[in-house]
Model the fold of this input.
Amino acid sequence: MADTLPIGTQLRIVTPEREVVEGEISEVSIPGKGGYLGVLPGHAPLLTELQPGDLTYRQDGLDFHVAIHCGFAEVLPDRVIILADAAERAEEIDVERAERARRRAEERLKQPSESEEEMREAREALRRAICRLETARHAKA
Amino acid sequence: MATLRDIRRRIGSIRNTRQITRAMKVVAASRLRHAQERIFSARPYANQMMALLQSVAGRLEQQEHPLLARRAENKILLVLVTADRGLCGAFNANLIRAAQSYLEEYGKDRVSLVTVGRKGRDFFRRRPVEIVSEHVNVFRYLDFSHAQKLARELIELYTQESVDAIDFLYNEFKSVMVQQVKVERYLPIEPISAPKGEFLVDYIYEQPPADLLRALLPRYMEVEAFRALLESQAAELAARMTAMDSATNNADELMETLRLRLNRLRQAAITKEIIEVVSGAQALEY
Done:
């Protein structure tokens, strides 16, 4: 390959409510539906659906974590665009609230009386809470 | 004939009303600024979503999806987005009038309603129109989950073939001074084509494009519903702000005329008293 690979790529994380992250980064790891994807600058164009998880990116030699709840990712050689239903940076997460949400979801899952729909909702809530807590843990580390 | 005291009392009551209208105007103005910012911050997501949708759809040989399916329009659903509260000028009245002419045009038995906002529901509840569902109190703390709930309900109605088409009727936020009542086709979705002139990027697809499209379309519907709600909210606040501003001005004007009349009346009373005293004294001299 004659061209040298670029050293940076633009990362943009947007939700319907706001733009969460925008900036030049050197590396990002995306929670894709089929598993985590590591993306470096100059990556081939790629489209994927996301699953709830912890997105990590490296900017100026520091690692940052963002909790992502479903959505899509578009990867292009010079930029990465994440369309997420919701996204929170690790330092924005309210750990106590997430912990409470997790416990509430677990309680609900234990009750057999709930309908299929409610069970699905509770499972989703549980996944979201666990994913938030996971990301928040990195904020302290 | 109004006495001095009557006029003073009226001025007092107008002053109170003016205080309320002015407070409402200030509140509406500050919430409007916030609502406008939200429209702007929702835009990047919507644009990216559209771009993504076009690039996926443009790549598919044939787009097959229940949300793209066109049927004879025997049953139409109208989503009427009004405000939860009044005192916002002709905002709700315009919407309701437009909804009525929509009903006239398509026939009352073909159209059913989903109302968003209390005003539209209150009006049509007592009329012979079927209201499939109602969403009230969404605008005070409007967030994406409201739009999600609405969109999911609409998608379900459409895919179950309870209705054959869905239109949105809402106020579009043009500017602070202008709101425009708008009818917009929500479902079925227009066939999506790749933007012309742009060359298509060759993506690696983690999932088959058809699967991606299936996942993208409902999300896109949620975004569209959210946009309509945000627009309507901003338009409502703008309408309220303008209405309350002119109400405050009217109160000022009214107070001015009343004060003038009060002063004239007071002066007349004083003059009358002086004349009485003077003419009394003169009567004694002769």
Notes: The interface with chain A takes residues 38, 41-42, 44-46, 48-49, 52, 55-56, 143-144, 147, 201-207, 211-212, 215-216, 219, 222-223, 226 of chain B (CB under 8 Å). The beta strands of chain B are 76-81, 111-116, 130-135, 165-173, 179-187, 204-205. Chain B has five helices and six strands.
